User: Which sequence fits this backbone?
């Protein structure tokens, strides 16, 4: 039986991201933009480091006597997509730094326009990626195992029918919608009662629960030495959230009259950039072993510890980032002026 790894990973990632999309819609409806941004950012980082890292770790331990290989073409395409999404998120952050020099009293309208234009381009890029993946260049995403018939594959049969799976999917979606509304409404109270920051709950705890389905599926496929599906689930889910769910939320907020930009904050964007670059370097050679899984998982622990010790009041993270940027700008401006003054004094001394 021929297994379409690419389509299977895409469907698995899409169904797994239903939780993030429902939580995002409820947070947007209640105008909790920071919860929305934190949860989406946490889902991306969780897929890149925790889901992929634990899959490579468990797959490497289960297949110690085999060298696990995968087709790097799929990883390369997803990495390019993630880098484009990272650029679209870094641009508003850099624009904030630039606008403080020339227009310190700006109301942020230019950043909103930049974010909305970038969101449209991100949606277009994701549609082009799907067309490239499923229509024009499907052969680039098919691994060698797609053309090999294996005895174990012949024995694999569906556990439930298509209609049963559809009914279960609809039922779980309704349950998730009810629970998501409750989670979004009580996240601030939980933060105060537990003594944990909202950023840690939204970026670390919520994505771990929300990504449980694709996490388990990715690890199971890695155990069976089917890394192409594991990569399709982890990277496909991260790419889908960054390039589809995030810009979709910006566009929907625009329609609803809510100001939502692609500026996720200095610390948050830095963690996202590090996660993307670390994942890209990990998958560049087309092979895997358990050490790569250990590195990715430990990187996720470090990022989690960073947000755990960050006790910033809810809604103040953006203002804190602006103060940090202003401090750095004034700091370097001061030393630039000081060095210029010292140079002028020295020049006058030597001339005299």
Assistant:
């Amino acid at each position: 039986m021929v297994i379409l790894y690419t389509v299977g990973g895409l469907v698995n990632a899409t169904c797994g991201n239903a939780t993030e999309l429902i939580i995002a819609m409820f947070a947007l409806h209640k105008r909790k933009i920071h919860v929305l941004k934190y949860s989406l950012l946490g889902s991306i980082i969780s897929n890149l480091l925790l889901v992929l890292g634990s899959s490579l770790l468990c797959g490497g331990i289960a297949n110690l006597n085999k060298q696990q290989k995968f087709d790097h073409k799929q990883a390369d395409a997803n990495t390019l997509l993630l880098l484009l999404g990272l650029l679209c998120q870094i641009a508003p952050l850099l624009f904030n730094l630039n606008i403080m020099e020339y227009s310190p009293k700006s109301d942020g309208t230019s950043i909103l326009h930049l974010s909305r234009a970038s969101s449209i381009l991100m949606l277009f890029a994701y549609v082009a990626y799907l067309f490239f993946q499923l229509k024009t260049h499907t052969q680039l995403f098919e691994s060698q195992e797609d053309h090999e018939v294996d005895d174990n594959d012949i024995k694999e049969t569906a556990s439930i029918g298509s209609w049963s799976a559809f009914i279960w999917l609809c039922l779980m979606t309704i349950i998730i919608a009810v629970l998501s509304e409750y989670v979004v409404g009580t996240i601030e109270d939980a933060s105060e009662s537990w003594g944990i920051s909202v950023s840690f709950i939204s970026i670390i705890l919520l994505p771990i629960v929300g990504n449980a389905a694709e996490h388990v599926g990715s690890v199971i496929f890695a155990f069976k030495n089917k890394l192409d599906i594991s990569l399709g689930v982890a990277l496909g889910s991260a790419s889908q959230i960054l390039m589809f769910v995030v810009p979709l939320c910006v566009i929907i907020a625009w329609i609803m009259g809510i100001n939502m930009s692609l500026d996720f904050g200095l610390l948050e964007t830095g963690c996202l950039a590090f996660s993307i670059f670390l994942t890209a370097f990990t998958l560049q050679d087309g092979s895997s072993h358990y050490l790569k899984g250990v590195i990715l998982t430990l990187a996720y622990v470090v990022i989690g510890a960073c947000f755990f010790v960050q006790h910033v009041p809810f809604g103040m993270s953006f203002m804190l980032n602006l103060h940090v940027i202003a401090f750095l700008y004034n700091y370097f401006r001061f030393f630039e002026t000081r060095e210029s003054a010292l140079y002028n004094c020295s020049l006058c001394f030597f001339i005299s």
Remarks:
- Confidence is low (pLDDT under 50) at residues 146-154, 346-352.
- The radius of gyration is 23 Å.
- DSSP finds 13 helices and two strands in the chain.
- Residues 317-351 form the longest helix (35 residues).
